[in-house]
């Protein structure tokens, strides 16, 4: 469960610039993992980074936190000597877009329309107000439903996943390399974070993962937002968890049980270890309860 230690730290910093200053970034190591074809994954602190390298240069999916930019750049140079041309944002959360103001000085940022809307606006969390991101970090190319970039000899598809993790999410499909980056629609081995305050919904997440499973093949390599690089079987297990846990909570809701009653009853035991990370079993139950209660 080492990956969940990083995950817990990462989410303390989501959308919170002051928290960045409190971290000791010197301890973070950016680790490369080969995915397939021309695609690699960088693991560090925050969301996993997808990397395309080839004759056209470098393209990345997400950029973690600003203080890690130099380490990320060093890791990219270790993979390829070309210039960084594109940054694709899987969604707007700060552990995936924190490096935008730095990488946006040299590369074109691409994201769903709602990413630009959210990073260009101030965010209120209780009594805390986070100002908009610096303009250089805003996406300059946006899309509503889908977009293709032809880079390094393959078509790279960006497809919007509505109202799952947030209302800003897209999955990125490297069609020639047969690799897909799912951002925070997919937490490999753990209960997901569904940001109900930013347009996320549990039924939307279930629907999105069902759709993706129908779009990829048995050999597709999968980059999750958090957790280890994996394959379709791991995504199918995640989907099974979503179905079974939501059905469990909804069944108890229909029986008139309160949130506290459902938390006390708990989820099927085979998913017990999935609550060891940032999202505990109780928090996942609460998310399901609140999401379906919004219907």
Please describe what this structure looks like.
It is a single chain. The chain has 295 residues and is α/β, with parallel strands linked by helices. The chain has one domain (2-232): Metallo-beta-lactamase, Chain A, CATH 3.60.15. It is built from ten helices and 15 strands. The protein has helices at residues 2-12, 17-22, 69-79, 94-97, 100-103, 113-119, 202-215, 232-254, 259-265, 281-293, and strands spanning 31-36, 39-43, 49-54, 57-61, 84-88, 108-112, 123-125, 128-130, 141-143, 146-151, 154-160, 170-174, 179-181, 221-223, 230-231. It has a seven-stranded mixed sheet. A six-stranded mixed sheet has the order 10-11-12-13-14-15. A hairpin with a 2-residue loop joins strand 10 (146-151) and strand 11 (154-160). Helix 7 runs antiparallel to helix 8 and helix 8 (232-254) packs across helix 10 (281-293). The two termini are 34 Å apart. Residues 1-21 have low confidence and may be disordered.
Short description:
The protein is an alpha/beta fold. The protein has helices spanning 2-12, 17-22, 69-79, 94-97, 100-103, 113-119, 202-215, 232-254, 259-265, 281-293, and strands spanning 31-36, 39-43, 49-54, 57-61, 84-88, 108-112, 123-125, 128-130, 141-143, 146-151, 154-160, 170-174, 179-181, 221-223, 230-231.
SSE class: alpha/beta
Radius of gyration: 18 Å
State the strand order across the main sheet. 1-2-3-4-5-6-9
Low-confidence stretches: 1-21
Domain count, please report it: 1
Distance between the termini: 34 Å
């Amino acid at each position: 469960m080492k990956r969940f230690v990083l995950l817990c730290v990462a989410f303390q910093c989501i959308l919170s610039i002051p928290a960045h200053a409190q971290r000791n970034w010197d301890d973070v190591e950016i680790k490369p993992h080969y995915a397939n074809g021309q695609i690699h994954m960088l693991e560090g602190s925050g969301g996993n980074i997808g990397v395309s390298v080839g004759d056209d240069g470098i393209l990345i999916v997400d950029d973690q936190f600003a203080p890690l930019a130099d380490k990320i750049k060093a890791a990219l140079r270790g993979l390829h000597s070309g210039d960084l041309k594109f940054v694709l944002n899987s969604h707007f959360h700060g552990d995936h877009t924190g490096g935008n103001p730095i990488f946006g000085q040299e590369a074109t940022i691409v994201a769903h329309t709602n990413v630009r809307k959210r990073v260009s606006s101030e965010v209120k969390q209780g009594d805390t107000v986070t100002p908009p991101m610096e303009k250089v970090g805003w996406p300059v190319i946006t899309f509503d439903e889908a977009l293709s970039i032809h880079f390094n000899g393959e078509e790279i598809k960006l497809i919007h996943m509505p109202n799952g993790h947030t209302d800003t999410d897209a999955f990125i499909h490297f069609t020639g390399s047969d690799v897909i980056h799912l951002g925070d629609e997919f937490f490999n081995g753990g209960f997901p974070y569904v940001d109900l305050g930013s347009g996320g919904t549990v039924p939307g997440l279930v629907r999105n993962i069902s759709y993706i499973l129908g779009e990829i093949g048995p050999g597709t390599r999968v980059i999750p937002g958090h957790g280890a690089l994996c394959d379709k079987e791991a995504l199918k297990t995640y989907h099974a968890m979503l179905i079974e846990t939501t059905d469990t909570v909804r069944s108890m809701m229909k029986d008139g049980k309160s949130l506290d009653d459902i938390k006390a009853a708990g989820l099927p035991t085979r998913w017990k270890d999935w609550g060891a990370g940032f999202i505990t079993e109780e928090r996942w139950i609460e998310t399901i309860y609140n999401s379906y209660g919004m219907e």
